[in-house]
Design brief:
With 1469 residues, this protein is an alpha+beta fold. It is 15% helix and 37% strand. It has 13 helices and 93 strands. Strand 39 and strand 40 (619-622) form a beta hairpin. Helix 1 (2-22) runs parallel beside helix 12 and helix 11 (1377-1384) packs antiparallel against helix 13 (1453-1468).
């Protein structure tokens, strides 16, 4: 029976071991779990089990409906929120699901629609997660990180009893809730009494558990308390104090953000900020703030900077600051605090060295040095996290304290956890003063020795040098050693102070190099090494001088001398150009060397400096460079010439040529410059000359010009000689009019009737600036000056007198700055005065009457003489004596002769009077009448001593051409009749004139004969000749204008005498503007030009004469170019990541109807066009690539008729395209990887592999693995958008932060991504738990083998010798079943098992003789136990690797096996 029981027992153990092995393989496809940093049973990264492995879910299309299915599947209530972007950390292994689309009614996540297993387009950076409403632990009654502890069990919330409740239990709760460190474990319902269930009592946590329910306790619902004993916690929240020398209430401030601890920068860090930290940590008030990494430099991110607390905030993160992760500092500026509830501190030096002070009864006090030794110091250093003690200082080595002396005669063994736990007489009991204050120097944060040199850096051969080594720690008994890094030079000096000075009286080349200080402490045999300081031994600085002028002309000789004040033996002088490779070397045994350059070229232009070298043994000493001397090599003086001449007229074009007489010029820039003013023109050329074209010279160009030449290599010519350039004004135009119509143009010039008014008008081209006109009368020295009004001036004479007769001309004068420019005189007008025709007529009439009277008188006198001789004396009465008679007859005869002479005189006088007005010749013509001019008016002909008109019968353009040619007035423009210029008086000499056109005079043409006509003066004929209508000029202020700008076009004629109308007309199209003007010009203003105005314009003017309009010929055309406005360009974001969308907007200030916008990259062929009817267009690039990195500019085009108008390019905008961060992951092929709260933990000796990956849309590039603990960067090309970096065996030197950078080369540009989120790698030794498990397995194997041997022997010996039961009992209690019970607790968080995989095992044979007779069951047990040991090892590794991701769903199989095992053991006993 007993044998059968033994066999049954062995069979049970065999099955038990097999079931133990199979418990690790009980997951089925579709099962889910929540994992990751900060995860709980109901919140975390979603993972799915498929094909014997766990994998993550991508967050594409991940929403609350999908999360609800996950939460319901895990029995965690409704979903609170969905999270993506690996919120709970990036997972490992495959990505199993993507684009999950749940309806909400599914029983499991894998029942939802998705792309299929392992079909995805994402990385682990997009792992999805959930936060469900039901959580296993919560805090109530206060804040989210302090309050009464409650847990949920069987769907009900309940409290925890405070029996045995301590800080380790509180730490588990704070860690589970991501609330930082535990500050206090409260009891007696400090946060109020709960209601309902009390679930836990006598909780006993180690502090490392991931959940409170994983700690030892009495069992759910088993307790001996009530709600007045409800337990609570006070957590720090996302803040803690750390660093060497830190305590619970003093240290470096660190905050938790994104599951990572980071530091705070000390910028603006003050007591108000520190008070918030101390209150948040329940450490009282702030005593002091620390800066500059007083508690050591942190690592990881710097989360906060420029913190500004008012002092009333509940947490540090509630204060004002720049933003999470935004800072401008390094870890050398880490901030810290010392709160009032600190128990121990070091002052007077560093955070790990100084005077020891303790806090007792709220007051700080010192410790007396009586009996103070290294054991006491060791306790202080350990209490402050400052590593080992180096020294126990006394006699106030770090300065005397103030206030209380709390401790004296301290006697520590060295193992105490706090100084106050050591033996001492009591607080405040002492026999000393502050001169005996004790201190410590700890090894952590021990200041690196400092080294300084005087004079600093560089010294000259032979100088004295002092090198000082010092340490910032309290004075210790140690040795300072000065070391030369390049040789065997070494100086030692022991010192009880914290510094020593090494003196080198005369430095030589043997001292040239780097020095370092080493500090050795005798009592600890520890060595601290300083950074290095470089001692450079220099030769004296040389001098440099130049023999001739610093400016030389190409081809001259140049001598440069280098020298030193005292040459140390023989050496070498080096003359070197500061730019380029030009160098000359000359050995010298004296203190100087002369360098001769026989013929300078442009290569010698620049700065030269000297250096001196001397060879000493195996070392070359080099002096500093001398000051430099500048050698300027100039090109020859350039020449200047003008074409057509050096004297031109305003408005002419001129070409000015600059040349340099040397063949060495290949390309450069000529500059033409006026010696006064700002005129300057530059022109690049490949030749030795350049011509500058001035299209229209103005008075601004008058002056002296000179040329300058600068070659492409920046060599300059000597300044050229100045040459005078003279600009003259063109001649003005003078014209004459008579408002009263008294002006007639004869062959000798202008003829004005005396007494009539006349007016001279002087005019000039309208482009000239404002000036003055002077009218010059050649017949006298009279000169009248008037200012120009609209480029003309009139000089009026109310009544013409004979003294006005003579030549008249105009001069125009302009004053520019202080200089007056005068034009040449205008072509003169000759003015002749004539008497009035009315006076002439009256004189003729009077003369005729007088002639008649005289003739009558003569007749009368003759008749009377005859009558008198016959009847005068009566014959009878009047007879006179002969003498008297003779005398009377003689008197009468004499009277008759006088009368005849008088008659003859008067007759001649009358004839001469009549003939004085007859100076014209027959056939002469003139133009007269109202508003007539020299070349337009009523046609009059001189015939038979009088002027007469011509009748308009058959009067045509051929007749008019003969008239205009006879008057030298050019061709005829128009023929007029019907007395257009007013009716004439006197005769009508000609009618029916018929000219062939070749006649020299009008009277040579065919006509009816003089005074043969059938018309009246209302048919008087006239002409308008072309000389009165000159071709107008046209000019524009700017030939190029921009859409919307104002444009001005000026039309002008050389001279005008009447009001007239100017017409501006476009050569194509219907554009036409008119403007009346009383001057010689008109300016047309187009306030806003459009594209319709682009083209050629020409001018014409019209003159109205007696209701008839006469038109001038058209001017030359002028081209007006209308440019579209310069567009603007903007982009929503100037920096984008590859694959992002970017929009670039082009706009114009005023859109000219519909048009086309063009977006173009300044380099490359990228070009987009977009039509738009508005003033802007937005170009959308849906996915940017590295090809889009660069500058972009816009252009606008518009089609008008058949012409395309193009705007100038906009300013450019820079688009920077960066790569997204790569993803880094870590695996261990040997299974040695565990993810802990501090990062990845890999067992020493195990292999590990970092994999860097990037989105597959990126082009081929290289990955670089960056190790933060060194400057090592390993680079490998990407294969399928990833690269692996393998480490065959993990070593401690591999410990540190690892990150990835991805680099892509496009053309000649290299693009680099930001570093990937780093992975912190910790190397650990093999786990003790693993060793104990293996040991337990081996022990179990030995026991089972022993049992098998004993049973076999017992069967053989049983019949021979009875065995006492008290000696040979072998109980199964020797098996460590308690370990098995404890192990099963770790699996209470995993879904119930649904299937068990069959395990196939090969039986192993053994050669041991003790097993040859054992039954097959024993061999099965042996194999099972071996597999059990292997299973135990695997289980322990799994337990470590799921440090944070513990899953609470285990089947009851394990417990059933344990219960059955216990029954079997009892039965066996």
């Amino acid at each position: 029976m007993r044998n059968r029981k033994q066999e049954e027992t062995l069979q049970f153990f065999t099955g038990f071991v097999f079931s133990l092995v199979l418990t690790s393989s009980a997951f089925i496809t579709g099962q889910i779990r929540l994992a990751g940093r900060g995860s709980t049973r109901c919140s975390g990264r979603v993972e799915v089990f498929y094909s014997y492995s766990w994998g993550t879910v991508c967050d594409d299309e991940w929403d609350i409906t999908d999360a609800n299915v996950v939460c319901r599947q895990l029995d965690c209530g409704p979903a609170i929120s969905v999270v993506g972007s690996a919120h709970f950390g990036q997972g490992l292994g495959p990505i199993l699901l993507d684009d999950v689309r749940c309806s909400g009614n599914e029983n499991s996540l894998t029942s939802c629609a998705h792309n299929g297993y392992r079909k995805h387009n994402c990385g682990h950076g997009e792992d999805a997660g959930v936060v469900c409403s039901e959580s296993a632990t919560r805090l109530t009654g206060s804040t989210s990180c302090s309050g009464r502890v409650e847990i949920k069990h069987d769907g009900q919330w309940g409290t925890v009893c405070d029996n045995g409740w301590d800080l380790s239990d509180a730490q588990v709760v704070c860690t589970q809730l991501s609330c930082g460190s535990a500050l206090n474990a409260t009891s007696s319902a400090v946060f109020g009494e709960g209601t309902g269930q009390i679930w836990l009592d006598k909780v006993n946590c180690t502090g490392s558990e991931s959940a409170l329910t994983n700690c030892q306790h009495s069992g759910f619902g088993t307790h001996t308390c009530n709600h007045t004993e409800d337990a609570g916690v006070v957590c720090s929240g996302p803040v803690r104090l750390a660093g060497p020398g830190s305590t619970r209430c003093s240290g470096r401030v660190e905050v938790l953000f994104r599951y990572t601890w980071g530091t705070v920068c000390d910028d603006e860090w003050g007591i108000a900020d520190a008070n918030v930290v101390c209150r948040q940590l329940d450490c009282g008030t702030a005593l002091n703030t620390t800066s500059s990494a007083y508690f050591g430099e942190g690592d990881g991110p710097i989360w906060l900077d420029d913190v500004r607390c008012s002092g009333n905030e509940s947490s540090l993160t509630s204060c004002g600051h720049k933003g999470q992760g935004k800072h401008n500092c390094g870890h050398g500026e880490d901030a810290g605090v010392i709160c009032s509830d600190s128990v121990i501190r070091l002052t007077g030096s560093t955070s790990c060295s100084g005077r020891v002070e303790i806090n007792h009864d709220g007051q700080w006090g010192t410790v007396c040095d009586n009996g103070w030794d290294l054991s006491d110091a060791q306790v202080v250093c350990r209490q402050l996290n400052c590593d080992a003690a180096l020294s126990a200082t006394s006699s106030a080595a770090s300065g005397p304290g103030t206030g209380q002396i709390w401790l004296d005669h301290v006697n520590c063994t060295g193992s105490e956890s706090a100084l106050t736990n050591c033996q001492h007489p009591g607080f405040g009991t002492h026999k000393c003063n502050h001169n005996q204050d004790a201190g410590v120097v700890c090894s952590a944060n021990f200041p690196q020795p400092r080294i300084s040199i005087s004079p600093a850096g560089s010294v000259t051969w032979g100088q004295q040098v002092n090198i000082t080594c010092s340490t910032a720690a309290a004075p210790l008994s140690g040795t300072f050693i000065l070391l030369w890094t390049l040789g065997s030079f070494r100086m030692n000096q022991s010192s009880d102070s914290n510094s020593v000075t090494f003196n080198i009286p005369k430095v030589t080349s043997d001292h040239h190099g780097e020095f370092r200080c080493r500090y050795e402490i005798k009592m600890s045999n520890q060595t601290f090494l300083s950074s290095s300081v470089n001692l450079r031994v220099n030769l004296p600085k040389p001098n440099i001088s130049i023999s001739s002028a610093a400016e030389v002309i190409w081809g001259q000789q140049l001598i440069i001398t280098c020298s030193v004040e005292a040459a140390p033996l023989s050496g070498t002088f080096i003359l070197q150009k500061t730019s380029g490779s030009q160098q000359m070397i000359q050995p010298s045994v004296s203190s100087s060397a002369t360098f001769n350059i026989s013929k300078v070229t442009m290569n010698h232009d620049g700065e030269f400096k000297c250096q001196y070298q001397k060879r000493m043994l195996s070392q070359t000493l080099t002096s500093p460079y001398s000051d430099f001397v500048r050698v300027t090599v100039n090109l020859p003086k350039p020449l200047i010439s003008f074409s057509p001449a050096a004297e031109v007229t305003w408005g002419q074009q001129v070409t000015i040529t600059c040349s340099v007489a040397t063949a060495q010029v290949h390309s450069g820039t000529f500059t033409l410059q006026k010696t006064s003013g700002s005129f300057r023109m530059t022109q690049s050329t490949y030749y030795s000359l350049s011509s500058f074209f001035i299209k229209t010279v103005t008075l601004d160009h008058d002056g002296e010009f000179l040329c300058h030449y600068l070659s492409r290599e920046r060599y300059s010519s000597v300044r050229g000689d100045a040459v005078r350039f003279t600009v003259n004004l063109e001649r003005p135009i003078i014209s004459l009019t008579s408002p009263d119509g008294g002006l007639v143009w004869g062959p000798g010039g202008a003829e004005v009737t005396k007494g009539y008014g006349l007016s001279f008008t002087c005019s000039i081209d309208p482009r000239y600036p404002q000036g003055d006109f002077s009218l010059i009368f050649s017949g006298s020295n009279i000169r009248e000056t008037r200012p120009a009004v609209k480029h003309s001036a009139s000089f009026n004479f109310p009544a013409a007198e004979f003294e006005h007769q003579g030549s008249y001309s105009c001069v125009y004068e302009v004053t520019m700055a202080t200089r007056t420019f005068s034009s040449a005189q205008a072509e003169p007008i000759s003015l002749a005065l004539k008497s009035s025709s009315r006076v002439l007529v009256s004189s003729v009439i009077c003369g005729i009457l007088l002639l008649v009277l005289l003739v009558s008188l003569a007749v009368c006198l003759g008749v009377r003489g005859k009558l008198c001789s016959e009847r005068f004396i009566p014959s009878g009465q009047n007879q006179t004596p002969v003498g008297e008679h003779s005398e009377a007859t003689v008197s009468a005869a004499m009277r008759n002769r006088k009368q005849e002479e008088t008659l003859q005189f008067f007759t001649g006088f009358v004839f001469s009077l009549v003939l004085t007005s007859s100076t014209f010749t027959t056939g002469q013509i003139r133009l007269a009448g109202r508003v007539s001019t020299r070349c337009s008016g009523r046609v009059e002909v001189f015939y038979s001593h009088s002027w007469g008109t011509v009748c308009d019968d058959e009067w045509d353009i051929t007749d008019a051409n003969v008239v205009c040619r006879q008057l030298d007035c050019g061709p005829a423009i128009s023929v007029v009749g019907s007395a257009l210029f007013g009716q004439g008086v006197g005769k009508i000499w000609l009618d029916d004139v018929r000219c062939s056109g070749n006649e020299n005079s009008l009277t040579s043409c065919g006509h009816n004969g003089y005074e043969k006509h059938n018309c009246r003066h209302d048919e008087d004929a006239g002409v308008v000749c072309s000389a009165d209508f000159p071709k107008p000029s046209i000019s524009t202020g700017s030939a190029k204008v921009t859409w919307g700008q104002q444009a001005r076009i000026t039309c002008s004629v050389s001279a005008t005498t009447f009001s007239e109308t100017f017409i501006l007309q476009k050569t194509s199209g219907s554009f036409r503007l008119t403007q009346s003007s009383v001057s010689s010009s008109a300016t047309f203003n187009i306030p806003k030009v459009t594209l319709d105005h682009d083209g050629e314009f020409k001018c014409q003017y019209e003159k109205m004469i007696s209701s008839q309009t006469f038109t001038s010929p058209f001017s030359n055309s002028v081209r007006l170019r209308v440019n579209l406005p310069k567009p603007s360009i903007s982009t929503g974001s100037a920096e984008v990541t590859w694959g992002q969308q970017v929009s670039i907007t082009c706009s114009v200030a005023a859109s000219p109807l519909s048009g086309t916008f063009i977006l173009q990259q300044t380099s490359g062929s990228f070009r987009l066009t977009q039509s738009s009817v508005s003033s802007s267009a937005t170009f959308n690039i849906p996915k940017v690539t590295l090809d889009h990195d660069g500058e972009f500019k816009c252009q606008y085009e518009k089609m008008m008729s058949s012409q395309t108008f193009t705007s100038p390019f906009s300013n450019s905008v820079r688009l920077r395209v960066s790569l997204e961060r790569p993803i880094i992951s870590l695996t261990s092929p040997d299974g040695g990887l565990v993810w802990g709260p501090g990062g990845a933990e890999v067992t020493k000796g195990y292999g590990l592999s970092f994999t860097c990956s990037i989105n597959p849309r990126y082009p081929q590039g290289d990955f670089s693995l960056i190790f933060s603990n060194s400057n090592i960067t390993e680079t490998r090309p990407a294969v399928n958008n990833s690269a692996s970096f393998n480490f065959p065996a993990a070593e401690f030197e591999h410990q540190g932060n690892y990150s990835c950078v991805y680099e892509v080369t496009m053309a000649t540009q290299r693009f680099s991504s930001d570093e990937a989120e780093p992975i912190s790698l910790i190397i650990k030794s093999s786990s003790l738990l693993l060793v104990s498990s293996v040991s337990s397995g081996i022990l179990l194997l030995v026991l089972l083998v022993s049992l098998a041997v004993c049973l076999g022997c017992r069967r053989k010996l049983c019949s021979k010798q009875p065995i006492p039961s008290d000696q040979n009992q072998m109980t199964f209690q020797q098996l460590n079943t308690q370990d098995l019970e404890n192990d099963c607790n770790d699996y209470e968080n995993i879904d119930a098992f649904h299937s068990v995989k069959e395990l196939e095992m090969d039986e192993e044979s053994t050669s041991d003789d003790d097993y040859e007779e054992a039954e097959p069951h024993l061999r099965q047990i042996i194999v099972g136990v071996k597999n059990y040991a292997s299973s135990e090892q695997t289980f322990e590794e799994d337990e470590e690797s799921t440090d944070e991701d513990v899953y609470v769903n285990v089947d009851a199989t394990w417990k059933n096996n344990v219960v059955q095992a216990k029954k079997c053991v009892n039965e066996y006993q």
